[in-house]
């Protein structure tokens, strides 16, 4: 996880600190890189992670083997659910989104980041050139992509629109934004 992504989570953990007693990290790793090890969560009594292939214990964090599309927790179990750079590896990611919302308590927060697309000035210039040169619609609509990682299980890239309409569907959206280039799209929503 890059510093700018980690800093965004730390900023939000600071904002939410007083309302968090339980946290679930979907796609957690049983090592120091887990978001559950952030200093802002050190006072949280119930921290648990899930991962399909990497699981175990690291310090006070237990990472269970579980599929994000069928979480092994009762409904409304967590004050905060976080998911970093995981949805793009789930073929039917919307099922994982539904499960994260199911286990989220009323008034709880869901924070997710995914690799994405944003409008970039260079892309706008290139599309303008393609239009003036009367190139096919394909060239006028082209977008830049980032390289595939963890192949062959890298399926998606997201936009702010997919974050709003699909990932954060049914939540009260607090914020949707991007960091870095190539972009990481963040979404923060609350269950009402």
Structure in a nutshell:
The chain is α/β, with parallel strands linked by helices and 192 residues long.
Describe the protein in words.
The chain has about 190 residues and is α/β, with parallel strands linked by helices. It has five helices and eight strands; from the N terminus they run αβββββαβαααββ. The chain has helices at about 5-15, 95-100, 120-130, 135-140, 160-165, and strands spanning about 20-25, 45-50, 55-60, 60-65, 80-85, 105-115, 170-180, 185-190. It has an eight-stranded mixed beta sheet, sandwiched between helices. Helix 2 (about 95-100) links the parallel strand 5 (about 80-85) and strand 6 (about 105-115). The protein starts with a helix and ends with a strand. The relative contact order is 0.16. Residues about 140-145 have low confidence and may be disordered.
Discrete helix count: 5
Straight-line distance between termini = 30 Å
Stretches where pLDDT is under 50 for at least 5 consecutive residues are 138-143
Q: Biggest β-sheet: count, sense, barrel?
A: 8 strands, mixed
Q: What sort of overall outline do the alpha carbons produce when their principal axes are compared?
A: globular
Quote the average pLDDT: 89
Strand content: 25-35%
Structural class: alpha/beta
Kindly state the percentage of residues in helix: 25-40%
Rg estimate, integer Å: 18 Å
User: In sequence order, what are the helices and strands, one letter per element?
Assistant: HEEEEEHEHHHEE
Strand order of the largest sheet: 3-4-2-1-5-6-8-7
Total DSSP E strands: 8
């Amino acid at each position: 996880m890059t510093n700018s992504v980690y800093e965004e989570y730390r900023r939000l953990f600071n904002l939410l600190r007083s309302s968090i007693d339980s946290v679930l990290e979907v796609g957690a790793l049983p090592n120091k890189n887990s978001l559950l090890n952030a200093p802002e969560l050190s006072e949280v009594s119930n921290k648990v992670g899930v991962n399909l292939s990497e699981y175990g214990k690291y310090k006070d964090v237990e990472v269970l083997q579980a599929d994000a599309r069928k979480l092994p927790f009762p409904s409304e179990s967590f004050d905060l659910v976080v998911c970093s750079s995981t949805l793009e590896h789930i073929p039917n990611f919307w099922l994982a989104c539904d499960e994260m919302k199911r286990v989220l308590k009323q008034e709880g927060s869901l924070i997710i980041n995914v690799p994405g697309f944003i409008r970039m000035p260079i892309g706008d210039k290139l599309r303008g050139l393609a239009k003036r040169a009367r190139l096919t619609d394909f060239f006028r609509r082209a977008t830049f992509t980032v390289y595939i990682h963890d192949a062959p299980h890298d399926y998606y890239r997201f936009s702010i629109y997919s974050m709003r309409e699909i990932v954060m569907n049914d939540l009260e959206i607090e914020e949707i934004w991007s960091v870095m280039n190539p972009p990481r799209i963040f979404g923060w929503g609350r269950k009402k």
